Amino acid sequence: MKKISGYISLVALLFSAAAGAQSLTINNGHSHNDYHQNIPFLQAYYAGTGSIEADVYLFEGKLYVAHEKKEIAPNRTLENLYLKPLAERFQQNGGKPYADAAMHLQLVIDIKEDHEHVIPELLKEIKPYMQMFNSAVNPNAVKIALSGDMPAPAKFGDYPDYIYFDGRPNIPYTTEQLKHVAMISDALGNYTHWNGKGTPTPPDSIKLKGLVNAAHAMGKPFRFWATQDSPNTWIQLEKLGVDWINTDYPQQLHDFLINRKKLKYVNPKPYSIYQPTYKSDGANKKVKNVILLIGDGMGLAQIQAGLTANHGQLNMYQCRSIGFSQTKAANSDNTDSAAGATAMASGEKTDNRYIGVDAQGKPLANLPDVLSQMKIKSGIISCGDITDATPAAFYGHISERDSSQKIAADFVNGNVDVLIGSNQRSFMQNKDARLMDKIKAKGYQLFTSLAEAEASDKGKQIVLLKNEDTRPVKDGRGDMLKQSLLHTIKVLHQNKPGFFIMAEGAQIDYGGHANDLPYVITELHDFDRTVGEALKFADEDGETLVIVTADHETGGLSLLDASTANGMVLGNFSTNDHTSINVPVFAYGPHSRAFMGTYQNTEIYHKILALLKGK
């Protein structure tokens, strides 16, 4: 038992240390076999790589860059490919390898054979460039590190102080010899069967971390070579504490590291979720009210990211009835919000960019239109532009989603009782100068803030917020979406025949388009808090069906690393546009099981309408 306990403690210590390790920057890249790049040196240099490796052979008195002797070619000399372009940039940067003085550079010369003759030739070739390599006179000097066929450590002192060597973990260096060691390196496969996929086993992690820690104890950076070259491997190597990420793809590594602020999110304090009673969930009783919550751009990866960041809990996951919606548009498997929302609002597929019209441009009756004939009142809410595609599909009929003024003007012809969102300009400065008069003539009260609207709980309301009121949650929006839903429920719940509310978490989509994971997750959490309020009301009311879904997925999000315990998610996006993957449908309340299974997004309309009609 003591052995097991000690082992667990050691594992905990290992991962605690990894969690506290500093994050690597683009300057921690090591361009392995750099001479195989399409543009040697420059490609890695402009990726900000801090270590660049060139294999060399001595041939006819010159050092050539090649992996094998048969690859030796005219003009592919160490001087032409590396020393000259490096010297040019060193001079341009005022005696620094990079313009940013915080960035450093080491040139790793991997000697393929015959170091006894290669090193003297190297010293001869770098002599004209000594201003770049002499750290005794320039602290920003480029470090030269020799690897491959190297002299024995006892011989290190025979070479100039500006010549360093690539050390090995299994060699016991003296204090004097360590002064000549640039870094400690070894092949990953010498210590583990881990192939870069997933994570190393705990014993292997301890072993690998031990190697890195031993190098750090000597004051030396550490590098593994012969590693897989993928984001997952880079992440795991960083957790192990390595200082150089070995890569054949310096630009991809650069992009991964430079964008990490937009790809990683940590939420140390989770919010509490609502625990439903399930008293009316799935019950075979009348559905009087429907709350449709649309997380724009919210696919399964976005939901999983939100779940992990909230330490394993979401309100929407309290729903027991779950299905999948197929989102394709009439003219493309990849839908946009216009076609996706129109399908849910009207029950018919249409082309992308079309709002509330069919593929031939003919107006379609939407849920608020149809339900008004049953005296059921409707509310449409968005935490973004209320003329944007998703909310517009529930009241507008325009064949171009960007026609914001036309969409606003079309509102007066619809049957929405409460409208809440931003974009005052499209309504108040509309080309139809009488638009607001027309809206008021139809009995609407106009409010320009949610606080104003909350003072009135009766009648038809149009709440046109300032754009700043729908800024991102991460920039201070607050709980506008949740409060808007609660206010709309308060106003419409007085209607005896019932109500229909569509509330949109608009900016999950915005974050996906921006490839910004913190943006996505903070918006999803705001949306999920709103879901919690809907579930709570459904329990209190007993006749309300809550449906949570999305119009499409945005960003092609994949999750590379996660910690539910720490609320940490690291992701990556494959596109800044929509994808065609199915999106989930969560349902809670009477007849919630009707939304289980897999079906076209148009079925959401038909299912809602049938239930409100009592069928």
TrEMBL record:
GO molecular function, one term: alkaline phosphatase activity
Gene3D superfamilies membership: Alkaline Phosphatase, subunit A, Phosphatidylinositol (PI) phosphodiesterase
Keyword Metal-binding: yes
Leader sequence residues: 1-21
Record-linked CDD domains: ALP (cd16012), PI-PLCc_GDPD_SF_unchar3 (cd08577)
Alphabetized UniProt keyword annotations: Magnesium, Metal-binding, Phosphoprotein, Signal, Zinc
InterPro entries: AIM6_PI-PLC-like_dom, Alkaline_phosphatase, Alkaline_phosphatase_core_sf, PLC-like_Pdiesterase_TIM-brl
GO biological process: lipid metabolic process
Pfam families xref list: Alk_phosphatase
Similarity comment: family membership: Belongs to the alkaline phosphatase family.
The name this protein goes by in its record: Alkaline phosphatase
Organism: Mucilaginibacter achroorhodeus
Lineage of the species this protein comes from: Bacteria, Pseudomonadati, Bacteroidota, Sphingobacteriia, Sphingobacteriales
